[in-house]
Amino acid sequence: MDDDALAERLRQTVGELVRAVRVVDTMPPGEAAVLGFLDRGGPLTTADLAHRRGVTHQSAAKSVKELVGAGLVRAEPHPADGRKLLLHITDAGRARLRRERAQRAGALDAAIRDTFSPEERQRLGDCVGLLSRLIARLTGR
């Protein structure tokens, strides 16, 4: 397999894996993404979230509104620009995000154990390290 074909096959396979694992999600993907960004990156504005998610401001604002209404995110005036709101994940939001992540990990763990032999699981673990290096190269981290 040449490098271009490998890259395309990897892109398709990883995308399918992500979609397959998300089947167990109990919240909309946009809302889970917002919680994830706030959990990993700290407080952000709606514009920051829209940019990071690659969606319109309107789409991000809709997710934020739902999360604020559910008590998973709180908004406060931006300290440097009173026209903006700074969004923070709440303790309830963190707990919800942990449950979502645990559900995904549990579903993936069960599938791995049901599908692969111990030797194959070891090989898969080695691949995770390779994928982490690839992500670091692509993101500059």
Automatic annotation (TrEMBL):
<feature type="domain" description="HTH marR-type">
    <location>
        <begin position="3"/>
        <end position="136"/>
    </location>
</feature>
<dbReference type="GO" id="GO:0003700">
    <property type="term" value="F:DNA-binding transcription factor activity"/>
</dbReference>
<dbReference type="InterPro" id="IPR000835">
    <property type="entry name" value="HTH_MarR-typ"/>
</dbReference>
<dbReference type="GO" id="GO:0003677">
    <property type="term" value="F:DNA binding"/>
</dbReference>
<keyword id="KW-0805">Transcription regulation</keyword>
<keyword id="KW-0804">Transcription</keyword>
<keyword id="KW-0238">DNA-binding</keyword>
<dbReference type="InterPro" id="IPR052526">
    <property type="entry name" value="HTH-type_Bedaq_tolerance"/>
</dbReference>
<dbReference type="InterPro" id="IPR036388">
    <property type="entry name" value="WH-like_DNA-bd_sf"/>
</dbReference>
<dbReference type="InterPro" id="IPR023187">
    <property type="entry name" value="Tscrpt_reg_MarR-type_CS"/>
</dbReference>
<dbReference type="InterPro" id="IPR036390">
    <property type="entry name" value="WH_DNA-bd_sf"/>
</dbReference>
<dbReference type="Pfam" id="PF12802">
    <property type="entry name" value="MarR_2"/>
</dbReference>
<protein>
    <submittedName>
        <fullName>MarR family transcriptional regulator</fullName>
    </submittedName>
</protein>
